[in-house]
Write a structure and sequence with these properties.
single chain, ten-stranded mixed sheet, 10 strands, globular
């Protein structure tokens, strides 16, 4: 088997009712040997399970999502890495779009690609759209890069260069990773399409109702992460980014797309033949 172009890690812990949809959304990409799927399962006692179809399943304890991602990426063989949460789905044709962008790029230093995201509910009905900005060095001096978790694809060398995911973080390891990429000199190239759908449901770590203590802990973690990275978000910087999103049409596009998707009963996970 040749070296895969992409390696995806799915971190799993406990019962995940939407896991099959997540896995099938990857298998439906039709990438063949260009995609390796690693399931990093925190349920112990089952060792390694070879699932076939490019899926490798490892059952071993971990110290949270960040640790699971580090463990999974350490086993990965692909040139480009990304992860998919067990609640979410990769949209049809997403990896082909990323692969085409890689092939068409004139820069040999391309090592980070970002895409746009949809928000879906339990029944896969689209409830929101989020279109990110392209790269802007000046604006990102005082704000976090506009990138969403599993819609980000990055080279192995870049991930290893910044030391991987911070295992002390439970809520904002993705923000921390993007900031470390940025501080290392990396600048993402954006795919103009939606590539990932994040599921909004009561069992999600980030979306479920939280007590005040847990919410305070989450915001304290974010604040500490920003301080450690030397990032000072300012009101002026935040307003500038939002104005940029308005004038470049991204906010309008989100609204129009949201209306379009609302006409469908549920999001389709297979490409049209």
């Amino acid at each position: 088997m040749k070296q895969p172009l992409f390696s995806c890690v799915i971190p799993v812990k406990g019962a995940r009712p939407f896991f099959d949809e997540a896995l099938n959304s990857l298998l439906a990409q039709g990438m063949g040997n260009d995609l390796e799927i690693i399931v990093q399962d925190a349920n112990e006692g089952r060792g390694e399970r070879e699932e076939g179809r490019g899926v490798r399943w490892f059952c071993e304890s971990d110290n949270g999502q960040s640790d699971a991602l580090n463990k999974g990426f350490a086993k990965a063989k692909g040139e480009w890495l990304f992860w998919l949460n067990a609640d979410d789905v990769l949209l049809p044709g997403a990896l082909n779009k990323v692969a085409e962008l890689i092939k068409s790029s004139s820069s040999n230093s391309l090592n980070w690609i970002a895409g746009n995201q949809l928000l879906i509910n339990d029944a896969r009905k689209v409830v929101g759209c989020s279109v990110g900005n392209g790269w802007h060095s000046w604006l990102y001096r005082n704000s976090v890069p506009h990138v969403y978790g599993p819609s980000s694809f990055f080279k192995r060398e870049l991930f290893e260069k910044v030391g991987g995911c911070d295992t002390s973080l439970n809520y904002c390891m993705d923000w921390d990773l993007w900031i470390k990429f940025m501080k290392s000199g990396a600048q993402y190239l954006r795919v103009g399409d939606y590539v990932w759908a994040q599921r909004q449901w009561s069992g999600s770590k980030t979306q479920r109702p939280k007590s005040k203590i847990e919410s305070d802990r989450q915001w304290a973690e974010i604040k500490g992460m920003l301080e450690r990275n030397g990032v000072k978000t300012t009101l002026a910087g935040t307003i500038a980014v939002r104005l940029w999103r308005f004038f470049n049409g991204n906010i309008v596009r989100q609204f129009v797309d949201r209306v379009k998707y609302s006409r469908s009963r549920s999001l389709k996970l297979k490409s049209k033949r």
